[in-house]
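Listing S7. Sequence submitted for prediction.
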Amino acid sequence: MTEDATPRPPVVVVTGANGLVGARVCAALEGRGAHVRALVRRPGTAPSGPHVTEHVGDFADPSLAASVVEGADAAVTTVHPMGSDRRTQERVGVDGTTAFARAARDAGVARLVHVSTAGVYDRSPAAGDVVEDSPLVGDDDGDYAVTKRDTDAALAGVDGLTTVLVRPPAILGPGPTSVWNTLRPQQVRDGDRGANPAKSFAWVHVDDLAALLADLAVGAVRPSGDPEQGPVAGGTTPVLVAGEPATWRDYHGTVCDALGVEPEWTDEPVWTGRIRPDRAARWGWAPRVDRAVALSELRRDVAGLRY
C-alpha cells in the first residue's frame, strides 16, 4: 500500500504585489502555505519571502499574463490607477484587468479574486445602509467609482471563472502609499480640513482585508450555489467588507488632532448609513482590528507628518 503524495501548495498570482494591499496579501498567502507569484512593474519591488517569486512587467501584457498564470490555482488583482484621468483608469483598470482575467481563464485558473471598492455604490445623503445588491453609482459620478464599477461589470462577463469582487470601503493601515493613513492626512495638513462630523466613515483595516482575499484565493471559503454561503462556482459574486461603524468625527478628528490643527466642521447633507458586511460574516470572515486600534495606529502614523 502506497502513501498518498503530499498535496502541492496552492500557487497564487498577485498583481500590484508591491502596493499597500498587494504586499499584505502576499504575506497572508505565505502564512497559508501558498506559493506566490508577485507581479510588479519595477524589478526589486516585490515583497520578500521564501515562497514569493517576483515577476516584472505590465499585468495586461498578453504574453506576460499568459506566462505568469500558467499552472496557477488562483489570482488576486489589486491594480487600479486611482487619481489618474478617466481614460487611464479605463485602460489600466477596466481593459487591463479584464484582459488579465481572460488570460487566467484560458490558463485554467480556478479562482479570480478582484479588489473592487464599496465606492461603486450610491452613498448620497438619501441612501441608507449598503448591501451587495444596493444601487450602484451613475455615470456622472467620479472617475474612480465609475471605472471600478465598469471593471466589475467587465469581469462578470468573463465566463469560466469563479470570480469574487471584494468591495472594501476606506482602507486603513500604514504605508507610504496608504490613502487614508498617509495621503489624505497630508492633504489635511496642507489645508483641506472641511468635513461634516456626522458623515459615516466606512473603513476596514488592510490586514483584515488581506486575510479575506487570501482565504478566498486558497479556497478556504468554499464555493456554493448560494452567494450568501460562499462564492458562486463559475459565477461572479460581490462581497462587502467593513470594520466597526465610525464617523468623520472619528477619522478626521483623529487626523487633525495628531497634526495639531483644528478641523473645519460643516453641516451639509451627508450619507449616514452603514456598509453591512453580513455576507462576508456568513462566509466566516470577521475583522480583528477594532476601531480603537485602527485609530491609534492612524494617530501614530499621522503624527510623523507634522511640519
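Caption to Listing S7: primary sequence and predicted C-alpha cells for the chain studied. The longest helix spans residues 86-106. The longest strand covers residues 35-40.
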